[in-house]
Amino acid sequence: PSLMRIIGPNTVxxxxxxxxxxxxxxxxxARPGNIALISxxxxxxxxxxxxxxxxxxxxxRIISLGDVVDVDVGDCLDMLAGDFxxxxxxxxxxxxxxxxxxxxxxxxxxxxKPVIAIKPGRHEQxxxxxxTHTGALSGAERIVxxxxxxxGVLRINDLAELLDAAETIARHAPLxxxxxxxxxxxxxxxxxxxxxxVDRGGELAE
Length: 206
What we know:
The chain is α/β, with parallel strands linked by helices and 206 residues long. Helix content is 40%, strand content 18%. It has a seven-stranded mixed beta sheet, with helices on both faces. A two-stranded parallel ribbon has the order 8-9. The longest helix has 13 residues. The termini are far apart.
């Protein structure tokens, strides 16, 4: 039997910028960096490459999965967890085809480095759109949310947050401690910031 693995079909391809490998048909190559991107949408992957080029953010790996006949998200997480070029993993997921495998891989990766996911389809209409795009079955939102949280994956809700997270990871060293201080010129804004911090699992320095 062959040991060859297959990414795709219906995929933009694969990039490994630190090795100057561009096995994709994206219109430009990404610059080297420390963020790995796993995407089930080729358009999202290429738009993130464009944004990264404009903002001087680089990638360690870019993997566009497509319709997933073989290599899936769990396989990618297993590989990236041990990749010394990768400091953090960001994912665009429309479906989780093998939940048990994904949970195991995500939990293992999240113990070693930040894992951040945007998973659309929170509403019924969006879930139907995802199904027509990649054949995805999105699953009950509360179950997906709880599963990601249990695996240690930070779920965010839109591309703006994903870009902010990627830029923060690329430009700043990891915090030595989990506590966060907030500087504000208004009390109300500070209270809102504390609520948001605690909602996301953070701890306020005292």
